[in-house]
Specification:
Strand content: under 5%
Number of strands: 2
Pfam family, one: ABC2_membrane_4
Protein name: ABC transporter permease
Oligomer: single chain
Distance between the termini: 25 Å
Shape: elongated
Organism: Bacillus inaquosorum
Keywords: Membrane, Transmembrane, Transmembrane helix
């Protein structure tokens, strides 16, 4: 835990928090815009409350999986590339523990960010829906409880998925490869059609999360062999 606190202070999370807030506002604004436009034309943007939750979750996970890759690039890959991690390797701390702390920060922040963003954006959107009635039907406590469980499960899956790019980034200590691979993953899992998203199939994000954990383990295991 001390290592995690030290790393958090070193990375100065202000830039990350600002980025998250801006991203949330953009997602919220985009959802409101398409919903209002559809209503103005006499249509509906979402056929049901469940579909609205599905689309909100897909947007949030797509954006913050990439944010997670940026965290990995900043915390791990760039330090190898710039050789600043050599200084930390001179500390009386195991390389494996150091890398574990960095990846726990990346995965943990991504999980918390996705879960809170999903909750806040959904709350804001459904509050607007109570005024403008974009979506037919009623938001019941049963729907809310079901979606809350899904949010937690998919947030975990997305947090694990955000670790997958470390496999590509560590090969040549490439920041672009880390971020581009996350964008490719997001494009593959975020395709949607009315009422359906590939990422809504729980086995897909959980399987990718398993890959992310395996790749993280491989990076940690090889930490003592890696030269910056």
């Amino acid at each position: 835990m001390n290592l995690i606190r030290i790393e958090l202070r070193k990375m100065k999370v202000g830039w990350y928090v600002r980025g998250v807030l801006i991203a949330n506002l953009i997602i919220m604004g985009f959802l409101w815009l398409i919903s209002y436009s559809e209503k103005a034309e006499g249509g509906v943007s979402f056929q049901s409350m469940e579909e609205a939750f599905l689309i909100i979750g897909t947007f949030v996970r797509a954006v913050f999986i990439v944010f997670g890759a940026v965290l990995i690039a900043k915390l791990v890959i760039s330090e190898y590339k710039n050789k600043t991690i050599l200084v930390m390797f001179t500390y009386p701390i195991s390389r494996k523990k150091l890398l574990t702390a960095k990846l726990m920060i990346a995965g943990g922040l991504t999980f918390i960010t996705i879960l809170l963003s999903n909750i806040l954006i959904a709350a804001g959107f459904f509050w607007l829906n109570s005024i403008y009635h974009f979506i037919p039907g009623e938001l019941t406590s049963e729907i809310i409880s079901q979606q809350a469980i899904k949010m937690a499960v998919f947030a975990f899956g997305a947090a694990g998925t955000s670790l997958v790019p470390i496999f590509f980034g560590m090969r040549k200590h490439s920041v672009p490869a880390t971020i581009i691979s996350s964008v490719v993953i997001v494009m593959l899992i975020s395709s949607t059609s009315p009422g359906f998203s590939i990422s809504s199939v729980v086995y897909i994000p959980l399987s990718l999360a398993a890959f992310g954990l395996v790749f993280s383990y491989m990076a940690i295991r090889n930490a003592d062999k890696q030269d910056a």
